[in-house]
Amino acid sequence: MANITAGIVKELREKTGAGMMDCKTALQENDGDMDAAVDWLRTKGLAKAAKKAGRVAAEGLVAVAVDGPRGVVVEVNSETDFVARNETFQDMVSTIARVAAAAGGDVDALKQADFPGAGKSVEAHVAEMVGTIGENMSLRRSTALEVEAGVVATYVHNQVAPGLGKIGVLVALESAGDAAKVTELGRQIAMHVAATNPLAATEAELDPAVVARERQVLSEQARESGKPEEIIAKMVDGRIRKFYEDVVLSKQAFVVDPDLTVDKAIQAAGEAAGAPITLKGFVRFEIGEGIEKEDSDFAAEVAAAASS
Question: What is the chain's Cα-based Rg?
C-alpha cells in the first residue's frame, strides 16, 4: 500500500477540484498513482453527473461576448441561483462564451470545441464540473450575429460579472458611419430589447402563424360587438396595426425617446453617424425561458443546496 501523504492529497485536490476525502479515497484505490486517481475522480464525477441529470436546471447564467464583427450569446443552466453566484461557474460560462465568439454560434459545434486548458471538449468539461460543483448543468443554447461593416452591440441585464447575467441581448447594426455613434445606438436598442422582448425585428420577419392566431382572436372579439362584417374587418385591421406596434421592434416606441419609433431613431442616428444604419438582427436570451420549472421555495432551495 502506497504512503498517501497530505501533500499528495492536496496536489490531487488542486488538479481536480474534488473534495479532500474523495481525493484520499481515489489515491488509496489506485495505490498512490496520481494519473489513475485523476481518472478515477473523473469517472466518479461523470457518474454524479448522470445521477443528477434528471434534475431541472433552469437557473444559471447568460453570457455575451464579441470577437471583431461577430457577437455571441450563450446560456448555461444550473439547478439553483446559488451556483450562478459561484466564481468557478462564472469563469466557466465566460470561457464558453469566448470559445463561442471564436468558433461561431452553433451550439453542437460549441459543445465539441476544445475548452481552453482542460484537454477536453466544452461538453465534457461541463459534465466534469457537475461532479465538482454538485449540481446538474447544461450548455443549453448559443447564437451568433455578424456584420460586414458596423457593430454587434451587447447588453446584459441583472449583471453579476462582466458579460454575465440573467438576460443577454445582441443587436447587429450594419453601417459605414461613425463607429462610436453606431455602437451607442446599438447598446440603447439592446437595452430596449431587454425591456420589451419583441417577437421580431420587422413585420416581414414576424411568424405568420402568430399573426393569423392574433387576427382570429381579434376577429372573434370584434364580432361580439354585433357590427357588420365590413366594420369588423376595419376594426381588426386597426387592432392588428396596434399589435405590430407592440411586438415588432422597428415599430415599437423607443424607450430612450418614446416620441420616436425604433425605426425612426435608427434613421436619425444614421444622419448623426454620417451614413445610413441598418438593423440586421437581434437576439435576446433570458435564463430559463421555455423550461418547465418545478415549484420551489427559498427554504427548499437552501436545503437542496446544503444536502448536495
Answer: 25
Measured from the Cβ of residue 305, the count of other Cβ atoms closer than 10 Å reads 15
Which CATH number belongs to the domain containing residue 89 in this structure? Answer: 3.30.479.20
| 237 vs 96: which has the higher pLDDT | 96
Report in angstroms the alpha-carbon separations of 100 from 30, 57, 142, 143, 205. Answer: 37, 21, 8, 9, 26
Q: Is residue 23 part of a domain?
A: yes
Host domain of residue 22:
6-52
Q: Which of the two residues, 98 and 29, has the higher pLDDT score?
A: 98
228 and 95, same structural domain?
A: no
The fraction of the chain above a pLDDT of 90, given in percent, is 54
What pLDDT does 54 receive? 46
The reported pLDDT for the residue numbered 29 is 87
Query: What mean pLDDT is predicted for residues 90-103?
Result: 93
The CATH number that applies at residue 207 is 1.10.286
48, 71: one domain:
no
* pLDDT for 53 beyond 50: no
